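Dear Dr. L.,

I hope this message finds you well. Following up on our conversation about the binding site, I have prepared a predicted three-dimensional model of the protein together with 1,3-dihydroxyacetonephosphate. For your records, I am including the exact sequence and ligand specification that went into the calculation, followed by the structure tokens. Please feel free to forward this to your student if that is useful.
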Amino acid sequence: MRKNIVAGNWKMNNDLAQTEALITDLKRQTQTSNAEVMIAPAFTNLWQAFQTLKDDTIEVISQNMHFAENGAYTGEVSASMLKSIGITTVILGHSERRAYYNETDASLAKKVDAALANDMRIIFCFGEELADRKAGKQEAVVENQIKNALFHLDASAFKHIVLAYEPVWAIGTGETASPEQAQDMHAFIRKTLENKYGHTIADDMTILYGGSVKPGNAKEIFGKPDVDGGLIGGAALKAEDFYAIVDAF
Ligand code: 13P
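The resulting structure of the complex is given below.
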């Protein structure tokens, strides 16, 4: 079933005290919504955030994980470690991970497999760079990112996956894809899934848009038929802004 989701990716922001303060603000303003609401604090604050929100409707999710179960991977965190503190959803493939930590389609395919083997839900991110769009290659780039990391999976895996289209040129730049650009790409992504896995899986897939979503543009972007929600960076760091975006549904 296609869902509406608004997820806040806090990136490397908020220490423990700031995390607690923002969650307090979020809880104060909790409201009923037509969307599932999630936040992704830093690893060090996941436990505290989870404990504070475990009886709330806001789900606490992880920004990343390693593909191995355990072992000599200094500085890394595994799916089973996340599961052991109650975290069951993970963001994979964010463009910042791809750009700064050399995550590739091949390593992401392994992370996807590890998350699924641990019964985790995945928010899988991808998106073209500005040069790709200028060259008119955005669809080919996105198609490859999806095929290379996900198309080895059985159809049954897709009920555990949410897709997030995040054009790199729109992340943190204040430049948002127009609602039409987002819709065109989301329709293309759905078609790509349909060609491989059939209509039902494509139609059921939740596809989020990310990149400079703000209270002022969320309604128009989320109003497009193939946009099922958003992955929010900067605007997720203020409770009022985040809820204004959630309210767009
Ligand atoms: P901004 O909303 O700050 O552009 O970030 C988007 C993003 O990268 C969410 O994962």
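In brief: The CA atoms of residues 154 and 197 lie 9 Å apart.

With kind regards,
A. P.
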